[in-house]
């Protein structure tokens, strides 16, 4: 791959967008390589992913403006579909994805972080949706995911003004869960990912699906989704071991060694 690297550490995979000369901007090749990288993740041996950017300055500085500037309407639509497909794949990926935002997260960069389950960032991170200044609307789900994450009023303010916000403001409005010094960001992300990976994998996957699917429907339908995914955990080795350990008061036994059970 030219612009995306993948490293596996135990049950955790780290996906790095590696195009630092263009501040990790998303061109077609980056999007294609991201799709291929996610599709190649071995879901039997991987329980959590981290998505980050190479270098110390930028997570992703948006979609590639140079590439976009010459697109025809049809090509623009194809480029938008490619991005949307990748972002939706990340959002619905069976295991959790943590965005470790290490600098600029603008336009498509902010949007790809919002496709992840959890966002943490470095102190130098900058978030924004500058698209209206470029004559376009946010096109990779920004109008939808930002409003869902930070509320309609704040999302409208950020999108209409195209004003970037720094890490502390992103934390204040709930766009990121925590802010760390740059050198601590990846170690913290790995520790969080390892903590997630230590829990029952089927239960974690089902939680992601329950939250994602439940957020799209009304509460009556949402609790039915939850019931089904709750029931799905029973009779798994994890459920038997997890509850058995509690009842036997054996706190030393952990779920960590139980492999993911394909169904
Ligand atoms: N695209 C291409 N190259 C970029 C880039 C980008 N988004 N951002 C930075 N670069 C390149 C710069 O051109 C420069 O390249 P060289 O000149 O060295 O060859 C290099 O990265 C370093 O950038 P700067 O020299 O500008 O670095 P500074 O520290 O001075 O400034 C900056 C950093 C992040 C503030 C600045 O680079 C900047 O404002 N970048 C653009 C940020 C931006 O506007 N991003 C949003 C892009 S719009 C769609 C779906 C989605 C989208 C579009 C369509 N459809 C459904 C069709 C998404 C749109 C966007 O994301």
Protein model, in words:
The longest helix is centred in the N-terminal third of the chain and has 19 residues, at 73-91. With 263 residues, the chain is α/β, with parallel strands linked by helices. The radius of gyration is 19 Å and the shape is globular. The strands form 2 sheets. It has a 6-stranded mixed β-sheet, with helices on both faces. The protein folds into 2 domains: 4-197, 2-enoyl-CoA Hydratase, Chain A, domain 1 (Alpha-Beta Complex); 201-256, Lyase 2-enoyl-coa Hydratase, Chain  A, domain 2, CATH 1.10.12.10. The protein contains 11 helices and 10 strands. Bound molecules: 4-(N,N-dimethylamino)cinnamoyl-COA. The site of 4-(N,N-dimethylamino)cinnamoyl-COA has 24 residues, from helix 2, helix 3 and strand 6.
Summarize the helices and strands and which ones pair or pack.
Elements: E1 4-9, E2 12-17, H1 28-40, E3 48-53, E4 58-60, H2 65-69, H3 73-91, E5 97-101, E6 104-106, H4 108-115, E7 118-122, E8 126-128, H5 142-150, H6 152-161, E9 165-166, H7 167-172, E10 178-180, H8 182-197, H9 201-214, H10 219-232, H11 237-247
Parallel strand pairs: 2-3, 3-5, 4-6, 5-7, 6-8, 7-10
Antiparallel strand pairs: 1-2, 8-9
């Amino acid at each position: 791959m030219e612009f995306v690297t993948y490293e596996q550490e135990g049950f955790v995979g780290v996906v790095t967008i590696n195009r630092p000369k263009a501040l990790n901007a998303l061109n077609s090749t980056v999007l294609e390589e991201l799709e291929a990288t996610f599709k190649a993740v071995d879901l039997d041996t991987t329980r959590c992913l981290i998505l980050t950017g190479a270098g110390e300055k930028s997570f992703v500085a948006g979609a590639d403006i140079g590439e976009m500037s010459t697109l025809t309407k049809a090509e623009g639509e194809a480029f938008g579909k490619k991005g949307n497909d990748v972002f939706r794949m990340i959002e619905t990926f069976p295991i959790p994805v943590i965005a470790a935002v290490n600098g600029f997260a603008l336009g498509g960069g902010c949007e790809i972080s919002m496709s992840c389950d959890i966002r943490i960032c470095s102190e130098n991170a900058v978030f924004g949706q500058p698209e209206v200044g470029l004559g376009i609307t946010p096109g990779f789900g920004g109008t939808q995911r930002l409003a869902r994450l930070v509320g309609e009023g704040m999302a409208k303010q950020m999108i209409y003004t195209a004003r970037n916000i720094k890490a502390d403001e992103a934390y204040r409005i709930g766009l990121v869960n925590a802010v760390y010094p740059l050198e601590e960001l990846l170690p913290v992300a790995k520790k969080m990912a390892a903590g997630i990976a230590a829990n029952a994998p089927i239960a974690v996957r089902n939680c992601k699906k329950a939250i994602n699917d439940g957020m799209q429907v009304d509460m009556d339908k949402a609790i039915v989704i939850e019931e089904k995914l709750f029931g799905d955990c029973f009779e798994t080795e994890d459920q038997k071991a997890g509850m058995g350990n509690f009842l036997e008061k054996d706190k030393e036994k952990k779920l960590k060694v139980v492999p993911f059970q394909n169904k």
